[in-house]
Design a protein that fits this description.
alpha/beta; Glutaredoxin; 5 helices
Amino acid sequence: MLKVGDTAPDVTLHLPDGSTTSIVDRRDSILVLYFYPKDDTPGCTTEAQSFTALADEFARAGATVIGVSKDTAARHQKFIAKYGLKIQLASDDETGSVCEAYGTWIEKSLYGRKYMGIDRATFLIAEDGSIARIWRKVKVKGHAEEVLAAVQSLRQD
């Protein structure tokens, strides 16, 4: 299990335009990496819209926001277009290596049925590649604002 102060696992993120980026590629800037279960579902849409509403403030604070789910690039493109999202989305649909590396691929239960799914979690990765903050079992309401405040305080340190 990752903890604050650990070096963020260097994983490859697959972006909807077909390009890739990695955590190492993002060094020298702050990265907000948030994991969510599925595009175009109520909680996930609200979360993406909340981060989008604050996208300019995250950029002013020197942070990039990337949402990660197992949805395909095509599904991400539709989700971005449908809601006018101004954040990046990445797919972990091929190997599941991103979710595995960050410990967000977990066993869940719904109506007594157990299944594997993404745990809603956010990682704030500092410019040096260390994990500055972790939010697990995220509640969507107010979360983007809380993450922005943490990014801004990281900049002041």
